[in-house]
From TrEMBL:
<dbReference type="InterPro" id="IPR006671">
    <property type="entry name" value="Cyclin_N"/>
</dbReference>
<keyword id="KW-0131">Cell cycle</keyword>
<comment type="similarity">
    <text>Belongs to the cyclin family.</text>
</comment>
<keyword id="KW-0195">Cyclin</keyword>
<feature type="domain" description="Cyclin-like">
    <location>
        <begin position="40"/>
        <end position="143"/>
    </location>
</feature>
<comment type="subunit">
    <text>Interacts with the CDC2 protein kinase to form a serine/threonine kinase holoenzyme complex also known as maturation promoting factor (MPF). The cyclin subunit imparts substrate specificity to the complex.</text>
</comment>
<dbReference type="Pfam" id="PF00134">
    <property type="entry name" value="Cyclin_N"/>
</dbReference>
<dbReference type="InterPro" id="IPR013763">
    <property type="entry name" value="Cyclin-like_dom"/>
</dbReference>
<protein>
    <recommendedName>
        <fullName>B-like cyclin</fullName>
    </recommendedName>
</protein>
<keyword id="KW-0132">Cell division</keyword>
<dbReference type="InterPro" id="IPR043198">
    <property type="entry name" value="Cyclin/Ssn8"/>
</dbReference>
<dbReference type="InterPro" id="IPR036915">
    <property type="entry name" value="Cyclin-like_sf"/>
</dbReference>
Amino acid sequence: MIYTAIDTFYLTDEQLQNSPSRKDGIDEATETTLRIYGCDLIQESGILLRLPQAVMATGQVLFHRFYCKKSFARFHVKKVAASCVWLASKLEENPRKARQVIIVFHRMECRRENLPIEHLDLYSKKYVGLKMELSRTERHILKEMGFICHVEHPHKFISNYLATLETPPELRQEAWNL
């Protein structure tokens, strides 16, 4: 087995304060709001797509990593969130078709903006454009990450440590929930 050091996503406080979004004139509060919004989109779409929580967590990590390197001013939050869900579903071996992700995000957008939920015709120019944009954004994410998309979640470590310490099941469940 070949091991490659992939923890290149640790950032200093200075790097966080001088993010690409800040350089493009987006203030800290707005950037934080956009990050929360993107993670909410990923969480809600994951639930609607019946994905395991690990997929949603991976999508959220990819989303944050991407915006540590690229600006919110240059990449649309909804498109990046959709692509992160699609990519994470493949990485976590619970793949969803592009069509499913597009339809879920389209319906979420209609509902959030109080628009009538319209049927998205799979042969329409709109659908074809959304599918191309999903693929294009996924390629941007992969390129920006150098195709290194491994995400190690703390859940299994917490569970193993608490089991080793022979803690009560309630404490293990509470730690898992957090």
